Amino acid sequence: MNKYLKRILGSSMILSALIFLSGCVQVKNGKPYGLIWDYLGKPMSLAIEYFANNQGLGYGIGLIIVVILARLIIFPLGIYQSKNATYHSEKRNYLSPIFTPINERMKNAETQEEKLAAQQELMAAQKEHGVSIMGGIGCLPILIQLPFFSAIYFAAANTPGIKESVFLGINLGKPSILLTAIVAILYYLQSRMSMYGLDQEQRDQMKNMMYMSPIMMIMFSIGAQAGVTLYWVVGGLFQILQQLVINYWVRPSMKKKVAAEFEANPPKWDKYKNTRTKDVTPKATGAISTNQHKKKKSNRNAGKQRSR
C-alpha cells in the first residue's frame, strides 16, 4: 500500500465521518436539531449568547471565546494524534536508507510485477521496523474531535443574533472577503509549517497537498456568512499553535526517542542493502528475439553467397 493510497483511504474515512456528523445536525424551519446539536451545539450557542448579552461583549467576541474554549478541550487529543504521526514520521526519516531505494524502484518500475514486488518489500520493511501503514494517525482521536468541530460550526451558523451583529466593521451575517483572505493565509502557513522536519522525499510528496487546505478553506468561506468564517479564523490560529508545539517540542522528543530505540535494536541495514527487483520487462525479451532473428537471417545469406 503506497502513501498516496493511504492518504486517499484516510481522507475517505474523515469525509465519511463528516457526512455522518453533518446528518446528525439538521435545520428545519431555521432551527437546528439532532444528537450533536442537542448535546454540544446548543450549549455552545447558549454560551455565545451568554458572553454576548449577559457579559455585554458582543457576538463576535462571544463566538471567539466559545471557539477557544472548545478548541482547548480537544487540544490534547490533537497533540496526541500528532504525536503518534510524528513518531512514525521520524521513524521513516531514520529508516530512509531502507525505504528510499524501495520507493525509487516502485516509482521507476516498468512492469506491474516489478511494482508489486517493490510494494510488498516496502510493506514488509515497514512491518519489520514497526512503521504504521496509516502513519500512526489513528481514527479514534479524529472521530472524537469531529463532533466538536461540527457543533461549533452549526453554533456559529445558527446562533440567534450573530447574523445581525457587526464585529470590527464586518457584518457577521454576510460573506467577508477580508476574513476569507485571512483564513487562506493562516491555513497556508500551517501547511508550510507542517513540512518542518520532514526529509526531502516526504516534502516532495506533500508539496501538492500543501495548497489543498487553503484552497478548500477559500471555497468553504467565499459564500459562507462571516460568523462561520470567523470561527475558521480562530481554528486556523489554533492549527498554527498546535503545529508550533509539534515542531519545537513534540518532534525533537520523538526524534530522540526513535534514535534511542534503534540504538538499542539496530535496523538490519545489510538485509536491504543489495536487494534488487527482478527485471521481467517484455521489451528486453523482444530485443533479444529481434537480434537472434537478424543473426539467423545473416547466416542464411552468407551460406547462399558461399554456394555461389
UniProtKB/TrEMBL annotation:
One of its GO terms (molecular function) is membrane insertase activity. InterPro entries: YidC/ALB3/OXA1/COX18, YidC/Oxa/ALB_C, YidC/YidC1/YidC2_Firmicutes, YidC_ALB_C. One of its GO terms (cellular component) is plasma membrane. It is found in: Cell membrane. Residues 59-247 form the Membrane insertase YidC/Oxa/ALB C-terminal domain. GO terms for biological process: protein insertion into membrane; protein transport. It is a multi-pass membrane protein. CDD domains: 5TM_YidC_Alb3. Pfam families: 60KD_IMP. Residues 268-281 have a biased composition (Basic and acidic residues). Residues 292-308 have a biased composition (Basic residues). Residues 268-308 are annotated as: Disordered. The chain crosses the membrane at residues 59-80, 131-154, 166-189. Keywords: Cell membrane, Chaperone, Lipoprotein, Membrane, Palmitate, Protein transport, Signal, Transmembrane, Transmembrane helix, Transport. Belongs to the OXA1/ALB3/YidC family. Type 2 subfamily. NCBIfam families: PRK02463.1, yidC_oxa1_cterm. Required for the insertion and/or proper folding and/or complex formation of integral membrane proteins into the membrane. Involved in integration of membrane proteins that insert both dependently and independently of the Sec translocase complex, as well as at least some lipoproteins. HAMAP family: YidC_type2. This is Membrane protein insertase YidC.
